[in-house]
Amino acid sequence: MSTSAPRILICDDHELIREGLKRVLTNGGLVGNVGEAANPLEVLAAVRRERWDIVILDINLGGRGGMDVLMEIHSEFPRLPILMLSNYPEDQFALRSIREGASGYLSKNLASKDLIVAIRHVLSGRRFIGPKVAEQLVAAVQRSETRPLHSTLSNREDQVFRLISVGRTVGEIAAGLSLSVKTISTYRSIALRKLNLKNNSQLMRYALEHGLDS
After folding, report:
1. Could you give all domains of the chain from N- to C-terminal order, each with its CATH number?
2. Is the pTM of this model over 0.70?
3. Alpha carbons 147 and 145: distance in angstroms, whole number
């Protein structure tokens, strides 16, 4: 596959971010067909309608969330490279993203040249893994002790858990994810049970102790 004019789909719910990414791609010589999507429905429609060489996907898309979209795209198009872009540090979601089918994970705080390097790396058929993710992968292979309890959470349970840990109410989470309060309450109950916790205060303390509250 040629990387001189790749077909790139940018998926972010902020127009300024999408415009900034397009400028970075242009300045980096990746001036092929660049498409845009602002929400999960637009992303899924775009990948089903056209052929893309790579998808740049924000992990914090509104509605269903970028992780859910990642899993759905990977399920339908397992050979389509997906590069996750996030405000979260690598040690929070990178390993989970790779396990769910992403070809790479980058922080939005990275330098423009790093994004170009990552895209070209992924377009060549390889995964782009930063030093912290590499360390996590090595540790995951080497450690023999029981995994931490929060690693047993599903993607949606983990998402609800993290939102509660930073003070979001069940109603706020339900509105933000376009789900019912009952559904969010169910995810909360499951997360509490899996973590052997009884209430939100204990959940917040657990997140703080494990560095998951950001």
Report:
1. 8-140 (3.40.50.2300), 149-209 (1.10.10.10)
2. no
3. 6
